[in-house]
Specification:
By secondary structure, the protein is an alpha+beta fold. It has 13 helices and 16 strands. It binds adenosine-5'-diphosphate (ADP) and magnesium ion.
């Protein structure tokens, strides 16, 4: 019998989307084919400590208010060293200055970062995994970092000629120094407009602003989370639709689904706490618009140098079916009721098959990268 691949599933983390990650991870852990893979759950506390053990997910779910205490009580503090050592995890006990290899050199063959937001989805974790030379699911450093930063992603969308709503990028320091010029920028975009922290997800820190009086409150809220904001014109009478992309250099697009938020827009409460937001698959759009969106989704995925997976979100005008790209998520939600796996299910790929496919794509990408030399070797000329 061939050896099972050891897959580290990493969740939690120092992110405002910590809780969302725990929900996604519970489903991924459940669905991974245990006859093919040996699963190593790795939880990162809100304080940034890495823990492993059977009960890590439960521990993190119960005690998220006391991040430091979790590490102290859980015992199994671990680290992944930033050197290519076959994904070895080491047990680190800083009190005793002890570093011990965990599991007799049985390192991780692959990692599935089920992390959302900062330090997980933004290239930071991907950087560590690159240094450790461990294959991992999803986009690499560049794709992750650009997808996470709405301002950078928009610049790339623009360069690729993808249609998007008028927007502006403002730094927190610029707003603090010269609030009037930000007011002018928003006046040019027109009200209502959306104020977003550039590098967050799950709608954290986002406001819809209907009039000048409300603008500074919205900017204050965004300023709690980020040093850079994206201001964007309201899509108006539009549907929110999403398309899942899967693959590496030759990605494919799923059918398109529609989100009908239970609140004025798809804010944090509508996403995770309000049961009445609706997902409609397929979206209520013409087949012509659907194939346009699939094409745009693949173009966006390639333009951002994504890999493995990506969910690309759009607005579609209800009257004209004009399409605007909104954003791309490199680690989309992964609960069975999340749009990313649901769209694949509707396109004929079950949740466990999808996980398996993502693992295979990660291995293929790592192998492809392994072809690159890391030192200069002159070509021999015949
Ligand atoms: N320009 C816009 N017009 C209309 N609704 C918007 C606009 N931008 C954002 N929204 C609403 O806010 C939600 C969150 O914004 P989004 O840019 O997707 O950020 P996040 O990365 O947090 O999901 C969207 O799902 C949508 O409901
Ligand atoms: Mg979104």
């Amino acid at each position: 019998m061939t050896k099972k691949l050891r897959i580290g599933v990493i969740f939690g983390g120092r992110s405002s989307e910590h809780e969302v990650s725990l929900t996604s991870a519970a489903c991924v852990l459940e669905a991974i084919d245990k006859t093919k893979y040996e699963v190593v759950p790795i939880g990162i506390t809100k304080a940034g400590q890495w823990l492993t053990g059977k009960n890590v997910l439960k521990l993190l779910s119960q005690q998220t208010d006391e991040p430091d205490k979790i590490g102290a009580t859980a015992g199994a503090l671990i680290s992944l060293l930033p050197e290519p050592k076959e994904g070895d995890l080491v047990r680190v006990d800083t009190r005793e200055g002890l570093t011990e290899n965990l599991g007799g050199g049985a390192g991780l063959d692959i990692v599935f970062p089920v992390l959302h937001g900062t330090y997980g989805e933004d290239g930071a974790m991907q950087g560590l995994l690159e240094l450790a030379d461990v294959p991992y699911v999803g986009a690499g450093i560049t794709g992750s970092a650009v997808a996470m930063d709405k301002a950078m992603a928009k610049a790339v969308f623009q360069a690729e000629g993808l249609p998007q709503l008028p927007y502006a990028v403002v730094l927190r320091s610029e707003w603090e120094r010269d609030p009037v010029s930000v007011e002018q920028t928003v006046a040019e975009l027109g009200y209502p407009c959306f104020v977003k922290p550039a590098s967050l997800g799950s709608s954290v820190g986002i406001s819809k602003v209907k009039k000048l009086d409300d603008l500074h409150k919205a900017l204050q809220e965004a300023a709690r989370y980020d040093r850079k904001f994206v201001l964007e014109k309201d899509a108006g009478n539009a549907r929110e639709v999403e398309c899942s992309v899967l693959g590496n250099d030759e990605p494919t697009a799923s059918t398109v689904g529609e989100v009908v938020p239970s609140r004025e827009f798809y804010d944090y409460m509508a996403k995770y706490h309000d049961q009445s937001s609706e997902l409609i698959i397929p979206a209520r759009i013409s087949s012509k618009t659907m194939s346009k969106i699939q094409d745009l989704a693949i173009r966006a995925f390639k333009a951002l140098d994504m890999a493995g997976m990506g969910r690309v979100d759009f607005f579609v005008d209800k009257e004209t079916e004009e399409i605007y790209i909104n954003e791309i998520n490199s680690i989309p939600g992964f609960t069975p009721i999340s749009m990313y796996p649901k769209l694949w299910e509707a396109s004929g790929l079950s949740y466990p098959e999808l996980i398996d496919r993502l693992i295979q794509l990660a291995l293929a990408r790592h192998e492809d990268k392994g072809r690159n030399l890391t030192s200069f070797v002159p070509q021999e000329h015949k």
